[in-house]
Amino acid sequence: MSRNKIWVFLALAFLWSWVSWFIGLDYLKGGINQESISTFIIFFFVGVYGPTISAVVTTLFFDGPKGFFELIKKLFVWKVPFKSYLYIIILPILFVSIGIVLYRYFIGEIGNFDKMACLLIPTVLLAGSYAGPLGEELGWRGFLLPEFQKTFSNLKSAIFIGLIWFVWHIPLFFAPFGTLVSGGPISFVPVVTYFVMLICLSIIITWLVVNSRGSVLIAVLFHLSINAGIALLFYPELSLNFKNVHLLSGAGIFVFTVFLVAKNKLGTSVTKG
Q: What is the pLDDT along the chain (273 residues), one digit of tens a residue?
């Protein structure tokens, strides 16, 4: 593990993202209106690409064009076990479905099932691909994960990235959107739940990547599927409470993560280099 590479990567990623987001948040100080929110959205999307931009710049600086092309190639590793693609589809739907069930039993009505919502899936996936998945995964799982794996086990690497991932999101806690705790008062339980979810999701994504030949494409697709919350599309009356449903889905995410760790599904190998 090259500590210099990691520190440079983290410094650039946080600087790019946090400066962009704080500039965007500054435009909202005078109140949320069409002009201020439109400006914030621009800086939000610019900031989201901090990890990917940092991964590219850091790799070019330390490893040159050859390292850059090796990094980019990870986005196109699609020949992976078919079950990886099944996990991308099934797991996020399962997690959100658990959240919907918990919402029904502990919070309130979920409304009617809209079978025609399936027509919205392509649009939601296309719109979601430009945010977190492409902006983050080349950095977190394409660059940072292999660097950590040179010294730490897959599990420890995933936990470290999960911690970094959580801290990186903090400015968005005070934004209208961007995380599951954005857009309202910051309180202890949602923040802790969100923290645990990111650690667990980092472990799950690492498991998928490790078992998919290091494919960042798989990480991007899973991240996209998680963000899309496809199961929620079929219950439009829950649209205003989607954050609560996603937070409740953390129960399923946590249980599945415990299963992965208990069964040592991530493996214990450390990549030397």
A: 678 999 999 999 999 999 999 999 999 998 889 999 999 999 999 999 999 999 999 999 999 999 999 999 999 999 999 999 999 999 999 999 999 999 999 999 999 999 898 888 998 888 887 778 999 999 999 999 999 999 999 999 999 999 999 999 999 999 999 999 999 899 999 999 999 999 999 999 999 999 999 999 999 999 999 999 999 999 999 988 999 999 999 999 999 999 999 999 987 755 544
What's the one-letter identity of residue 118? Answer: C
Instruction: Bin 183: left if φ > 0, else alpha if -120 < ψ < 50, else beta.
Output: left
| Token digits of residue 204 | 């799950």
Listed in sequence order, the DSSP H helices in 34-142 are 34-48, 50-73, 82-106, 121-128, 132-137
Q: Enter the DSSP assignment of 234.
A: T
Measured distance CA(219)–CA(206) in Å, rounded:
8
Q: Which of 52, 24, 22 is nearest to 38 (CA)?
A: 24
- Nearest C-alpha neighbor of 271 from the set 201, 212, 210, 203: 210
Q: Which three-class secondary structure state does DSSP give residue 232? A: helix
Q: What DSSP character marks residue 260? A: H
DSSP at 272: -
Residue 128: DSSP 8-state: H
Place of tokens 């439009």: 236
Position 166, amino acid = F
| Interacting residues of 43 by C-beta distance below 8 A, sequence separation 6+ | 20, 21, 23, 24, 27
Structure tokens at 262: 């208990």
